[in-house]
Design a protein that fits this description.
The complex is a heterodimer of chains A (298) and B (277).
Chain A (H helix, E strand, L loop, with lengths): L20 H19 L11 H12 L11 H6 L3 H34 L2 H4 L5 H23 L2 H11 L4 H26 L3 H8 L4 H8 L1 H27 L6 H10 L3 H32 L3
Helix pairs in contact in A: 4-6, 4-8, 4-11, 4-13, 6-8, 7-8, 8-11, 9-10, 11-12, 11-13, 12-13
Chain B lengths: L6 H6 L5 H4 L3 E9 L4 E10 L4 E5 L6 H8 L7 E6 L2 E2 L5 H8 L2 E4 L11 H6 L8 H9 L3 H13 L15 H15 L3 E5 L7 H17 L3 E5 L3 H7 L2 E6 L2 E6 L6 H8 L3 H5 L3
Parallel strand pairs in B: 3-8, 3-9, 6-7, 7-8
Antiparallel strand pairs in B: 1-2, 1-4, 4-5, 9-10
Helix pairs in contact in B: 7-8
The complex binds adenosine-5'-triphosphate and magnesium ion.
């Protein structure tokens, strides 16, 4: 049945379907981005390398085909352990620092995530004063997490370098601090994203809100948490390589020292060790995460 | 040990506690409003202990809301709910939890954790009774006794062989059985079930409803179940409560339900069809 269209009246007011406040804001943002690019005053001519540097560059890259199996410095070759042993122990230190950082950051981040997550009590039957307390606790936990991750691990490393000296321990702590903050934020969001049906069920058969959260939300989030943890271990490995550049006795440091001495073949030995380590870890990681995703049914 | 006399002690000595005489559930002039809809409208009814009741009515008539008032999950606009003679309003959350422990609940969404094993989901049924620590232990290192008990209940609902399967790998009907077993594991004195057979084919639906009512009879448990299928309700339940727009319009034995009443429960008026209800 057709209605007589002359009887229809549009609702009053102006209806711009294509240009809302939010879209205007993003358009302005895009304009600012373009302006910033020009304000940088980039000269693409700078990308052309002057011939004097070109010699080193060529040397560096041609060394890629012949990584050193012995020290290039004869004195070092006589006195030190074998270069491959050194590379392996440097890699081991990297792993140790990354694992240590995670061992510190994971429980801290998990605890902060528990405290900052809100979905489990927001709709529960808790009394009002308890809710106010929990709102306060969760805001405090979120603030602390933001504070922890606002300073990058490299900055912490430099601060420690200046104050305590950069050792394996301080390197580990430098990584652990921002990682704990990131774990807290991401885990907290993962908790809040979970389907609440089990938690609701548990409360409806008499479980406390905390029990409902622990048994109803944590197990649901677990595959995601684990998968993200493995990803972060990979990040920690990369960070520990970079922190090595600042003086923690590991692959990063060896790479820096060999390039400074222009022993490029040695550099490539260490670089290949680093790449092999990261690639192997990545392969392992991808397989674990694929398995976890299949478990969580997504 | 508590100092209150046990039920059997009370009986032997001729004492009558409120528990023995009071109905399992009683609603007194209960009204529940959501923003603009009145989901329950001045509902009063009693369900005695051990009784089996089917809730019937069209979609949106208030069946789920009514079930949720029975275990105190739904806040009321007005009225009062009594469980075993105990009024629920104003109860401290600890006391409310105590009452809920003895009421089994099979929600429409089931609320199973898909990535846990079936046995672990069964353990969740006891979450009201167990301390947090106990619950974690049951989920990670359940005792032999717990595992056996889980197996027994699963076997009773016909999916014993799935004990250690991942729950997401089960079919919809099997998951509904697991939810029933989880409620048995809770060992409740009454069971509320929200359309537990909506997701299975008609033959399975008959099996499941039969199973649930048999289990309830075996254990002397009161059963309140919402169900869309009027035939099933008539066949397996001695009492039917019909809801429409939040009002109880039928409360009778299946034989006394007239065709006119049955029609009025499910046929929509023209106004309702037009308003999209
Ligand atoms: N959380 C809510 N917020 C707003 N309205 C709600 C809410 N829950 C239920 N309602 C409304 O209350 C009325 C009764 O809903 P209820 O879920 O109890 O119906 P039902 O009989 O269980 O329906 P169905 O057979 O579709 O499950 C409906 O009109 C519904 O839209
Ligand atoms: Mg419903």
């Amino acid at each position: 049945m057709r209605t007589d269209s002359s009887a229809l009246v549009l609702p009053p007011g102006v209806h711009r379907l294509w240009l809302g406040k939010r879209r205007l804001f993003f358009l302005a943002l895009a304009a600012v981005t373009v302006l910033c690019f020009f304000a940088l005053d980039l000269k693409f001519g700078d990308l052309i390398v002057p011939p004097a540097y070109l010699k080193n560059t060529k040397e560096f890259f041609s060394a890629a085909f012949s990584p050193a199996l012995n020290y290039q410095d004869a004195a070092a070759a006589a006195t030190s352990e074998h270069i491959l042993t050194r590379a392996a122990s440097g890699a081991l230190t990297m792993i140790r620092v990354a694992a240590g950082a995670l061992a510190l950051a994971l429980p801290t981040g998990l605890a902060l995530a528990y405290l900052s997550s809100r979905s489990w009590w927001e709709n529960s039957s808790l009394p009002k004063n308890r809710r106010i307390l929990l709102t306060f606790v969760s805001s405090a936990a979120r603030t602390l997490a933001t504070f922890l991750r606002s300073v990058h691990e490299l900055l912490w490393a430099i601060l420690f370098l200046a104050s305590l000296g950069l050792t394996e321990l301080t390197g580990t702590i430098a990584i652990a601090i921002p990682f704990a903050g990131t774990f807290a934020k991401v885990f907290g969001e993962m908790f809040d994203e979970q389907d609440l049906s089990t938690a609701n069920y548990l409360e409806e058969v008499g479980a406390s809100p905390l029990a409902a959260f622990t048994a109803g939300i944590f197990p649901r989030a677990f595959p995601d948490l684990l998968s993200y943890t493995f990803y972060r271990f990979e990040c920690a490995l990369r960070s520990s390589a970079v922190i090595g550049f600042f003086g923690v006795e590991s692959l990063g440091l060896y790479i820096r020292q060999s390039t400074e001495n222009l022993y490029f073949n040695e550099t490539w030995t260490y670089l290949y060790t680093l790449i092999a380590l990261l690639v192997l870890f990545e392969i392992w990681n991808v397989r674990i995460r694929a398995h976890l995703l299949s478990v969580s049914g997504r | 040990m508590s100092h209150a006399p046990s039920a059997s002690f009370a009986k032997r000595h001729g004492m009558t506690s409120s528990k023995d005489s009071a109905p399992a559930f009683a609603l007194h002039e209960v009204t529940v409003d959501f923003q603009s809809t009145r989901a329950l409208n001045n509902v009063s009814l009693e369900i005695s202990s051990g009784e089996h009741v089917a809730l019937i009515g069209p979609s949106g008539s208030g069946k789920t809301t009514l079930l949720r008032t029975l275990n105190g999950s739904q806040s009321l606009t007005s009225g009062e709910v009594y469980v075993n003679g105990q009024a629920l309003t104003g109860l401290a959350s600890k006391d409310l939890r105590n009452i809920r422990r003895s009421i089994g609940w099979i929600p429409q969404s089931l609320g199973l954790v898909p990535n846990l094993r079936v046995a672990q989901n069964l353990m969740l049924g006891s979450s009201g009774r167990a301390s947090l620590w106990d619950l974690l232990r049951k989920l990670t290192f359940p005792s032999r006794a717990d595992q056996l008990s889980a197996l027994e209940h699963l076997d009773r609902v016909g999916v014993g062989e799935k004990l250690f399967e991942r729950t997401s790998s089960l079919s919809g009907g099997q998951q509904q059985r697991v939810a029933i077993a989880r409620t048995l594991f809770q060992n409740p004195t009454s069971i509320l079930a929200d359309e537990p057979v909506s997701a299975v084919d008609p033959a399975r639906a008959v099996d499941l409803v039969k199973l649930l009512t048999e289990l309830a009879t075996e254990n002397g448990v009161s059963l309140v179940m919402s169900i869309h299928n009027l035939e099933l309700a008539r066949r397996f339940f001695p009492r039917l409560i019909g809801l429409r727009s939040g009002k109880v319009i039928v409360d009778s034995r299946p034989d006394d339900l007239s065709q006119a009443e049955a029609d009025s429960l499910f046929s929509l008026t023209k106004a309702e069809i037009l308003s999209g209800e």
